[in-house]
Amino acid sequence: MIKFDNVTATYKKNIGIFNISFEVEPGELVFIMGPTGAGKSTILKTIYKDLQVDSGKIFLNNEDISLSSSNLSISSTRNEIGMIFQDFKLLNDRNVYDNVALPLRIAGISSKNIKHMVRDALNKVNMSGYEFSYPLELSGGEQQRISIARALVNNPKIILADEPTGNLDPNISDEILDLLENFTANGSTVLMSTHNFPLIKPRNKKFIELSKGRMV
Ligand SMILES: Nc1ncnc2c1ncn2[C@@H]1O[C@H](COP(=O)(O)OP(=O)(O)OP(=O)(O)O)[C@@H](O)[C@H]1O
Ligand SMILES: [Mg+2]
Known about the structure:
- By secondary structure, the protein is α/β, with parallel strands linked by helices.
- It folds into two domains: 1-80 and 157-216, Rossmann fold, CATH 3.40.50; 94-155, no CATH class.
- 34% of the residues lie in helices and 26% in strands.
- It has helices at residues 40-47, 71-79, 96-106, 111-124, 140-152, 170-184, 197-200; strands spanning 2-12, 15-24, 29-33, 55-60, 63-64, 81-85, 158-162, 189-194, 207-211, 214-215.
- The chain has a six-stranded mixed beta sheet, with helices on both faces. The chain has a four-stranded antiparallel beta sheet with strand order 2-1-4-5, covered by helices on one side.
- Strand 4 (55-60) and strand 5 form a beta hairpin.
- Helix 5 (140-152) packs parallel to helix 6.
- 37% of the residues are buried.
């Protein structure tokens, strides 16, 4: 669950997001819509604690994450979140297995468990068998599937996707949306930014529309 209660977060005066309130329930997929510069990434950054809020509250699974700014709480917050980006952010000199295993190695999980968890994650995104491929040997859609596997490999309750289909053609974008929607079936929460209204319109999901950092 993600809840914004009148959140304002600024980079400098009059630049940022202002008085944002919304809620994403467990098992829900919600979109953040708006043109370039509207504040979509900024909303996601406040959840990921890349940007401190000036006022208002952000709740993740009923916990107020906007209160403390200690490093411990940043890392424990991030442990509950899987992030997906437009440019995939894969390590091109590591193979698919190592890319997906990365968050698990950082978390100190045993290699035996890592093996199972990576296999499960690759299964979920229909990329089994690609363990030893390198990112640049894959298509854009395949690379995004790998980055989704990496985001969900430690079973986070929350997935944040920042324009995940921005570099993909319409058919592939739809497949990526299917994957994200599947992910909500087990009670996880997905918040995805996009400027592509025709892509999300047929899904009939809740969306938050932003203009110049404000909800419209
Ligand atoms: N690190 C930063 N420092 C200062 N201003 C920033 C910073 N990052 C973003 N901004 C400004 O904040 C506003 C919102 O930016 P944001 O990146 O959230 O937009 P966006 O909706 O994600 O746009 P896009 O569709 O281009 O990704 C813009 O005016 C932008 O210039
Ligand atoms: Mg953005």
